[in-house]
């Protein structure tokens, strides 16, 4: 029998996504840099300052303050 992992859930704000790159696929990619993107708060997608995403992660306390990636 395989080990079962438990994901902690955390809502986090993601900032500094260029406005022309804000769409579901890129937002999900940004979340995947630190965990599993479970949901995107659609009410925040058009906010210029940040987008809110629901992450699944091993330990919410270990989510890094900063993560970098390249958006297509």
From TrEMBL:
Name of the protein this chain belongs to: DUF4283 domain-containing protein
PANTHER family xrefs: DUF4283 DOMAIN-CONTAINING PROTEIN-RELATED (PTHR33170), OS10G0417100 PROTEIN (PTHR33170:SF22)
């Amino acid at each position: 029998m395989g080990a079962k992992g438990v994901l902690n859930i955390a809502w986090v704000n993601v900032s500094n996504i260029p406005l022309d790159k804000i769409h579901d696929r890129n937002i999900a990619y940004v979340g995947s840099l630190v965990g599993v993107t479970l949901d995107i708060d659609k009410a925040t997608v058009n906010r210029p300052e940040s987008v809110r995403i629901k992450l699944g992660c091993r330990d919410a306390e270990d989510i890094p303050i900063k993560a970098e990636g390249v958006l297509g």
